[in-house]
Amino acid sequence: MIKTITHKLFSVGLAILVLFSTVSFTIEKHYCGDVLVGTSVFAAAENCGMEAMEKAQKKSCCKDEVDVVEGQDELKITSFEDLDIEQQQFLVAFTQFYINLFESLPKQVIPHKDYSPPNLVQDIQVLDQVFLI
C-alpha cells in the first residue's frame, strides 16, 4: 500500500520536473526611478503613465527589465538505427523475451465441475457423534 503510494508520488514528481524543465517564460518589470511599479509574467508589465512626460523631456526616468527563463529545448531523440549493434541486439532480445514471458496457461479440466452433491437430510457426524478434533 505504502509502496504504491510512494511510487505514484515519485512518478508524478518526475513528470512535473520534466514539464517545468522544458517550459520557458519571461518576467517583465517596470521601474519608475528606483521604485518597482509593475511586474508581469506572461504579458507586458504595467506602466506608470509617464510616457507623455518622457517624450517632452527626451530623458527617461523609467526603465523596463525583461528576465527570460529559458527551458530546455534540445531534447535528445534517438532512433533505432542510431544505436550500436550490441544495443540493438539487446533491445531485440529484451522485447522478444518480454513478449514471450506472458503466455497464457492451458485450460485446466475440472472433472467434478458438473457434479452436484447429494442432499443431506441429517448431519451424519452429529447423528453418530463423530467429530474431528
What does this structure look like?
The protein is of the alpha+beta class. Helix content is about 40%, strand content about 15%. It has four helices and three strands. It has helices at about 1-20, 50-55, 85-100, 125-130; strands spanning about 25-30, 35-40, 60-70. Strands 2-1-3 form a three-stranded antiparallel β-sheet, with no helix packed on it. The chain is elongated, with a radius of gyration of 37 Å. It starts with a helix and ends in a 5-residue tail after the last helix. It comes from Hyunsoonleella rubra. This is Secreted protein. InterPro entries: DUF8199, HYC_CC_PP.
What would you call the structural class? Answer: alpha+beta
Helix percent band: 25-40%
Strand content: 15-25%
Extended strand count: 3
Q: Compute the gyration radius: what is it?
A: 37 Å
What is the global morphology?
elongated
Low-confidence stretches: none
Number of helices: 4
Largest sheet, spatial ordering of strands? 2-1-3
| Main beta-sheet annotation | 3 strands, antiparallel
Averaging pLDDT over every residue, what do you get?
83
Q: Topology as H/E string?
A: HEEHEHH
First-to-last CA distance: 38 Å
Summarize the structure.
This protein is of the alpha+beta class and about 130 residues long. About 40% of the residues lie in helices and about 15% in strands.
